[in-house]
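Data card: per-record layout.
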Amino acid sequence: MFITKENDSVLNNISFTFGASIISLLIGTSIGIIIARTLGPSGKGLLAVIAMVGTVVLTLGNLGIGAFNTYAISNKSVEKKDLIGNSFWLGLIIGSICFLIVLIFAFNFPVIFRNIPRSYLLLYLISLPFLFLSNFFSGILTGEQKFRKLNIFSIITQAINLIGVILLLLVFKLDVFYVLIWYVLVNTINALFPMGFIFLTDGIYFNFNLQLLKKALNYGLKICLAGIFALLVLRVDLYMVNFFKGAAEAGLYSLASNFGNMFFILPSSIIAVIFPKINAEDKTRKELIAKYSRISLFLVFLMATGALLFIRPVIELLFGQAFLASTRPIILLLPGLIAWSVASVLSQYFLSIGYPLKLTISWFLVAVLNIILNFIYIPQYGMAAAALSSSATYLLALCFHCYFFNKETGMSFYDIFIPRKAEIKSIFERIKGFLRKNIKNDV
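The structure for this 443-residue chain is written out next.
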């Protein structure tokens, strides 16, 4: 049977995480609509690029600590109090160092941040220590499989963000500068929720364990490098559109990037739930990964079909005619988004076995190709070239993951990509059950 009691628990966690992510997405979309309608493509583009820089710095500097926290908690290989203490100090120290490094680059190599006001960038990056703290402490809660707490924290933070944006842009009619100040406060709140919860339930620990740090770096650095290359593949296109074409076109392309985030909700929900599980259960690891890879593929294919049919009228309705030019890059991104969704699930297998160096090298090759394609074609073809380059490299990333997964496990193309009849039936039954429940509640 496809649905066992254990599988049902996993699917319930995935369903809850996915549902909570949808709520967060809707709130985030509302924020995006308000920003687009009030600040236009240029303002939206500037905010998107600055936030992207923060994400890049977080990925460059996290050293894989958050991933190690999840790994170590889920297999109970270290003392939790040591993880808490290390996470606290590393978040503050790494965040502060990263801010100083960006500060040096901003003043000495301003061309790197072309079309980004330096004062705006540095204002936002004040919150870097809190971005790291959020990443590290959320990793601990993920390892403990406290998905409901994490999702509730995320929804509350997004709701607070929405209230602030409404007040700043719709009530007080303020500009980008004040939105950035608000983003700094929201990043702080986003860190305080998981950190505060852990302090309240487990106690406050400020000890620093050097041996644990060495262990974390041994596990995390390969993952951190792969994450850096993966992030370059995901985000360098927006940076280069802004660099070559300016904030207005970056604003249009940021809508395509945000749309991509919607596709990543499903695989991200699956990843959050299954990684602690497969990390603790060696025997069924490869079968679980293959099963959720094909389930992810089936569902994101349905999502892509819906997007292809309805994306243009949805953009016009929500964001206005000024953003209709975003339709083309979104459509061009669809094949790559499907590929990325499957690759991200397959990657969890490699995370659970220590992440082989060959996969990190493959991410490096994909990132280099992505940068080259963007550098050659964006100056002439703009955001359409960025979307095509991204799709091509996302597909290449999937090819690498499938090849290495097959070599490691012997699982075939059929095992990874073709959903079983029972799985499809189960998916639709859960959807029908969800709809019936909500219709009944409405009645």
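Known properties of this structure: The first helix runs from residue 5 to 61. The radius of gyration is 21 Å.

See the next section for split statistics.
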